[in-house]
Design brief:
Two copies of one chain form a homodimer.
Chain A: H1 3-14, H2 18-29, H3 33-46, E1 54-59, H4 66-79, E2 84-89, H5 93-96, H6 99-102, H7 108-112, E3 116-119, H8 127-143, E4 148-153, H9 159-164, E5 169-174, H10 180-183, H11 189-192, E6 195-198, H12 206-222, E7 233-236, H13 245-262, H14 264-291, H15 293-307, H16 313-322
Parallel strand pairs in A: 1-4, 1-5, 2-3, 2-4, 5-6, 6-7
Amino acid sequence: MTEPSITDWAARIMAGDRRALALAITLTESQRIDHRTEADALLNLIWSRTGHAIRIAISGPPGVGKSTFIETLGTHALAAGRRIAVLAIDPSSRLSGGSILGDKTRMETLTRHANAYIRPSPAGETLGGVARRTREAIALCEAAGFDLVIIETIGVGQSELTAANMVDMFILLLAPAGGDDLQGIKRGIVEIADLLLINKSDGDLEIAAKRSETDYANALRLLRPVSTDWQPQVHRCSALTGYGIDIVWSTILAHATAITTSGERDRRRCQQDILWFREELRERLLNFFEVDPSLRLFIPRIEEDVRRHILAPPTAAQRILNTLPLPRER
Amino acid sequence: MTEPSITDWAARIMAGDRRALALAITLTESQRIDHRTEADALLNLIWSRTGHAIRIAISGPPGVGKSTFIETLGTHALAAGRRIAVLAIDPSSRLSGGSILGDKTRMETLTRHANAYIRPSPAGETLGGVARRTREAIALCEAAGFDLVIIETIGVGQSELTAANMVDMFILLLAPAGGDDLQGIKRGIVEIADLLLINKSDGDLEIAAKRSETDYANALRLLRPVSTDWQPQVHRCSALTGYGIDIVWSTILAHATAITTSGERDRRRCQQDILWFREELRERLLNFFEVDPSLRLFIPRIEEDVRRHILAPPTAAQRILNTLPLPRER
């Protein structure tokens, strides 16, 4: 695609064209160098139109009801006049075979609504690739006029931290049950949550949910809040009955107001952009390196010496570095 | 330190001098560029004397009794004439404040034995740093004559996979209890284990341990073995009473024989060395980049444009790359 059509493309995204948006996100997922160049150009053209949305991440153990919760919360936010984009982070989809994409019943209402955009996670990505794609997708969705961006983490392990590093607010959804260990939550995740929600507070589970709410509220008092402008909260809700969803929504708005007013939101986003920049730099540097024609021949020769146990791997790496036309001394 | 003394140092390590070994491992932990250069030289000098040890990783959830198990297994292996090095991988020590180092009762017998060397994990490291240090420590311990190297993973999450990528055999220690989720084991870890051990098969827990043994044996039958030369096994043991430790030891020896005879051990180590080489290359390239004097001035200027939301981070990264004296086109 040539420059003028990239400009057109950007204009269509900014006019709210969903097809242009979807294609742009697909473009950011491509590994091809020419696609990467186009994606860079596109992102730069829409860049001044980004930043106005509330960005939240929603995480929680499998089975806690994240999709249903997002459906219920999203419907509430739509009624409040919001335009909603939901992006999934699922680094495990490579292993699970992308079951998410096949599950057609997920977020049925949101999927059909004109003011909602659901983007499932593509299968076959590394966490690094997911992070890059998701950051670019957030920017593209904002440029397309979505003012509430929800990142849903589906994977395990590192994905919560990855998600927390690209949003304003981190929401952890829990089941009315025992400790974190029993729920398969990685240690430290509770500590980064701005809002803890005990979901499934309905029917037989309501009493257990109340107990969990008290337990976590007590635990939170012992933790130093991540932010100076926001004290993490615990609430109960039920994505099934809708109980507590109004409080969740008003808490999200209160959090957004608190951190925007204090300037913390902008400081945080600044730091996130610098982190993104450094990750991109690292990633591009490595790609760059791999396509250098002379190194493409030299690396396999050095690797052969590593295979034959002639060279220790650190020395082998240093030999490659010594061939670079860059300053070698401090 | 100058070249001749590095040669002396290497000679002392290869003569089994424990102080020279300990200092060398400390050297590999240093971030200083001159230390890195020395560590490279040292490693290269001892490189031909590495590779003869059995390398195993022992992992398992907190509280399963890893330290006691290593103490019991190690004592058994010492009696069989082995020289044992135990290295800890603990990426979480930065958060837990290095409690391991303070815990003086860990592996008391091994600590005092002339043929055993225990190296606790240094606090304050990233997982990448831990992996590099551990790989170099394995090589140094082998050069010093240790013929059984045990990597103990203490942290959570990625550390098991990191450990598995630097050993011949991966042992997972489990408690006689419910499913993996209840034990806080990351999905996929059972699948990479060459040997599953149900520890604490003593007293009241023996019946539960037998049930767990059957459960895991059945589960393993459904999994495709990672190796074509080894079918993963499940055994019960008790680090406390010593029950089953003889079987564990003979299984370790049987595994070593099986993969050595078939050539799988060497193939695996080859791949691990290539992985190590690539990780080193990546790490060094980034460091290299950060110390380039012209880039050290340029990067903060570009970052300022990112902070002021003038440049999208991917474009900012590309601008840096475009300044490099490397080929810019495919």
